[in-house]
Specification:
Layout: H1 12-48, H2 65-81, H3 91-109, H4 121-148, H5 162-167, H6 182-210, H7 215-233
């Protein structure tokens, strides 16, 4: 079987099919993410009358543990396939999606300790690996929303300094950005979602430090922001009219 041609050699019709496939994939990622906190919590409550657990990861030990692991593994597969046919100008996106895939698998298969802060030995080490992997996942999700999703197709980058590239996470650069109409609206959503994830990461660390027991809620907000961002990226909202 012949290999499909590189994206830059595809016909306009083939490129449109590829773009639609990526958009569909982004919507699927968003739906799985948005459903995750509701699915694990409601499922555990309906099946066992279980009150809210301390974190989304703690549902690994409940009746909805399979749903938790399955959702993360499905997301990991999607991120791994996200760059099956690398697109021009997206090498960094492709590399980060691979790292995110590996980190999501680690979050799913290296569970948070059932003993919590009292864990010792191997469970404690696995718990540290779980937290580190989760931090990588949330951090990269914020990077995608703030930096990569806010790019525009006609953006001039050849003469851009790293400072101007970084400016994208705060606002559109009128000298280099071609964002108009709905793209401007989408960028506002991406920045709101990205900074929400960052804020939740900081607050999770504070909650852990002071034992505030807010981790489940903060993780849920971060996951919902991630899912909403990917739904918008996939064209569920503020899509350009073709």
């Amino acid at each position: 079987m012949e290999e499909p041609p590189p994206a830059e050699l595809m016909s306009p019709v083939e490129q449109d099919v590829l773009a639609r496939s990526y958009a569909y994939l982004q919507k699927v990622v968003g739906v799985i993410a948005v459903a995750l906190p509701f699915g694990v919590a409601l499922g555990d409550w309906l099946l066992d009358g279980q009150a809210l657990r301390g974190s989304i990861s703690a549902y690994y030990y409940g009746r909805t543990g399979g749903y938790f692991v399955g959702s993360l593994c499905a997301l990991a597969v999607f991120f791994l396939s996200y760059d099956y046919r690398p697109r021009p100008g997206h090498k960094i996106d492709n590399a980060l999606s691979n790292v995110m895939s590996a980190a999501m698998i680690a979050v799913a298969l290296l569970p948070t300790p059932s003993q919590g802060a009292d864990a010792v030995g191997a469970p404690r080490l696995v718990g540290y690996a779980h937290k580190l992997s989760a931090a990588v996942v949330f951090g990269l999700l914020a990077v995608f929303s703030l930096y990569h999703f806010t790019k525009t197709a006609g953006e001039v980058t050849a003469d851009m300094s790293w400072q101007r590239r970084l400016l994208r996470v705060f606002r559109n650069d009128p000298q280099h950005s071609t964002a108009t109409g709905n793209k401007i609206k989408r960028n506002k959503v991406f920045r709101f979602c990205g900074w929400t994830i960052v804020a939740c990461m900081v607050m999770i660390a504070v909650s852990d430090l002071f034992h505030l027991e807010l981790v489940f809620w903060l993780e849920s907000v971060a996951v919902l922001a991630f899912g909403f961002s990917w739904l918008v990226k996939g064209g569920a909202l503020f899509a350009d009219q073709s």
